Amino acid sequence: MLLDATQNMLPEQAPVLQAIRVIDQAQAKIALVVDAKGRLTGSVVDGDVRRGLLHGHSLQTPVSDIMHRQPYTLPVGSTRQKILQAMQVLEIKQVPLLSPEGMVTGIAVHDLLLGLQHGQRPNHVVVMAGGKGQRLLPITQDLPKPMVPVGGKPILEWILLRLRHYGFREFSFAINYLGHMIEDYFGDGSAFDCRIRYIREKEFLGTAGALSLLPPGDAHPLVVTNGDILSGIDFGHLVDFHAAGGRSATVCARAHRVEVPYGVLQMSDGCLQGIVEKPVHDHLISAGIYVLSPQVLPRIPQGQALDMPELLLSLIDEHHKIGVFVLEDEWVDVGRHDDLERVRRSFTDQG
């Protein structure tokens, strides 16, 4: 969606004060400076105004004195994917689109391209919360793993709050083992300022099979996360990364280091060629968080068990584009007792 740029355009001789009013009042927070023929000659955003005033310019200074003279633009007719990709790379939120003559034809705005309204994202989120959590026995004997408390709240509530912080409001929880406890706690989501629906598995369907039970027709990429993952990930950035790349799926990855505590023998034809003492190997592992484009969901067999690696490998076999989003934030798979204790200690240390 493009915005009409008329209310954002200023003549070169307009005062800085007028640029401030445009930035404050217009939907796209940018002033576009044009010459007498209406051709773009520069742009002004909030940072340009602050720098200009710091350098001694006044509110009556011509806007041409403080404008950015080489703003990033794209030609009219640029695809949504190309615009989003440029925004991601350059870390900008709006891009003027120009005619071949240099006339402003509109402004592409990041949030509007992604369908965001009032900071809310239209993407649906599915949390896989149906596993038995056998590695956390006996804690999970009478408690589903996503409901295990950490820092005074269930793991699943921390996941929900993180996603809600980034504007997600539509959730489905895939439940099975002791799923009624999850439903009783979260209800329809209204107490958490969101909407929660439930995918009730009759059999264990793995980490992807439950997606076949979603209602069809969602036009936006789907976020999928395991129900035992605590992470500092920026989910909004993840979805933007996926959308900008024209990908069928995106996998979140986490760096994992394996240290061998022994000398490793290097052999050839039964003879020792060398010894590597305590080698270290770095790998990228799946972080249990994914984004799937709408065209992927019909490929999931209805009501059959399927794990996410199987789904992703089938997409690779069919030559789909799969992105990898590398996490640099805190990340914990709360799947074992030592992981759980480590997370609980970190909450205690934070007070």
UniProtKB/TrEMBL annotation:
InterPro entries: CBS_dom_sf (IPR046342), Mannose-1P_guanyltransferase (IPR050486), NTP_transferase_dom (IPR005835), Nucleotide-diphossugar_trans (IPR029044). One of its GO terms (molecular function) is transferase activity. Pfam families: NTP_transferase (PF00483). Keywords: Transferase. CDD domains: NTP_transferase_like_2 (cd06426). Residues 125-347 form the Nucleotidyl transferase domain. This is Nucleotidyl transferase.
